[in-house]
Design goal:
Elements lengths: L6 E3 L5 H11 L3 E9 L2 E7 L6 E6 L16 E7 L2 H10 L8 E4 L2 E4 L8 E5 L5 E6 L8
Length: 143
């Protein structure tokens, strides 16, 4: 049996502002935008080429045994691209505040690209949820 990671909830304060950020600025596809019950809205978006989506939720009770996350408390979700410099340029063109490309060096984080699997950038959504982008040597299907 496979256990596939398919949806990650992202806590936000303003659903429409977050939808605009993820769809228009990051280029995520809007899969669902629906009020599933009175006062309960779900927006599901998927990054280009990904099999895992994010879900923006309003009015949904937490799943049994879980807690609700406050907006801006999700950090470290990681996306992979095969060309980090092009990815950074596209984000900047779309108005996303993004870090320089960095790698882990002998003294910690250093600016510039590193070797294979060692090039990263980061950005935050409008609520302060933090994302990391890592350069991969090839598309997932080729690894």
């Amino acid at each position: 049996m496979n256990w596939t990671l398919e949806v990650v909830p992202v806590p936000v304060t303003d659903m429409d502002r977050a939808k605009e950020f993820y769809a228009d600025r990051l280029g995520f596809a809007v899969d669902v935008d629906d009020e599933v019950a009175p006062g309960m809205r779900v927006i599901q978006l998927t990054p280009p080429g990904s099999r895992c989506s994010i879900a923006l939720l309003r009015g949904m009770p937490p799943a049994p045994g879980t807690k609700t996350m406050a907006p801006g408390t999700l950090h470290g979700i990681q996306l992979c691209v095969t060309d980090i410099e092009t990815a950074r340029a596209r984000l900047l063109e779309r108005g996303v505040e993004v870090s320089p490309v960095r790698h882990v060096g002998a003294t910690g984080w250093e600016e510039g690209k590193g070797e294979t699997w060692n090039s990263f950038l980061s950005f935050e959504d409008p609520d302060g949820n933090g994302w990391v982008v890592q350069e991969a040597p090839a598309e997932l299907s080729q690894r």
